[in-house]
Amino acid sequence: MELRPIKTDADLQNALKRLEEIFDAPIGSSESDEADVLGLLIDEYEKKHYPIEAPDPIEAIKIRMEEMQLKQVDLVAEIGGKSRVSEILRKKRKLTLEMIRNLTKKLNLSPELLISDYQLLR
After folding, report:
1. Do residues 40 and 14 touch, judged by C-beta distance below 8 A?
2. Contact in structure between 118 and 56 (CB atoms under 8 Å)
3. What is the dihedral of CA 32, 34, 40, 41, to 10 degrees?
4. What is the tens place of the pLDDT at every residue in 14-62?
5. Does the model's pTM come out above 0.70?
6. How far, in Å, CA of 37 to CA of 2, rounded?
7. Same-domain pairing of 30 and 74
8. Which residue range(s) make up the domain with 44?
9. Is residue 119 a part of any domain in this protein?
């Protein structure tokens, strides 16, 4: 097991290739340990060089609605009225604190994600 830091995209590709080769190694084997360490190294490199931005609150709501197979009408109780739900999802109106609390429970989203700022569309 020759492990070294991942410093370039070429190193990353080599590490990914090696991880693919040993991914199903028996737990407790040296290859399994190598896979664990490679996974950590790959994760750190990707976080630093290819960060993934969190979606804005409205996109997060839409994503969760799709995952849960919900329609706009399913959020009326949490947001208040069909037209209000539509305004929120079209970014014509901002979420209120009460809406954020309700959506946090209904959609199981973190409050930190829902309180993030986003631009209204005119």
Report:
1. no
2. yes
3. -160
4. 999 999 999 999 999 999 999 999 999 999 999 999 998 888 999 999 9
5. no
6. 11
7. no
8. 9-49
9. no
